[in-house]
Amino acid sequence: MEKNEIWWYNSCTYCESEVYKVEWKFKCVNCHRNIPFLEKRFKIVVLAEDATEAFNFILKNRAAKRAIGFTATKLIANKKKDGESNAYPLEITAITGKELTFTIQISDDNFLLNSKILP
């Protein structure tokens, strides 16, 4: 687990993409909507391995919520309440060493565009 990584992001409530502040407003980079209410979502970098290889994965919101048992919003609120706003959440580090199963989808683009995820 990469503890120095940012473990959450502000997301678009419509398409779940990351949003950025542009001229006092939050704007989605994907669907170009102005976002009045932000939703916080997980984005956790983990190292996964089997007997043959090791890979970095990004646990996005749904997978991270299942593994951790909390939403990103709930973890952030708990950290603020406990006065630990800068500490990496123990709830996230608790998944270290857990056995998780990943399903990886590989599309034609991975082959056609010489994706670096394939040998």
Automatic annotation (TrEMBL):
Source species of the chain: Heracleum sosnowskyi
Domain Replication factor A C-terminal: 3-112
Protein name as it appears in the record: Replication factor A C-terminal domain-containing protein
Domain of life, per lineage: Eukaryota
Gene3D superfamilies: Nucleic acid-binding proteins
A Pfam family per the record: Rep_fac-A_C
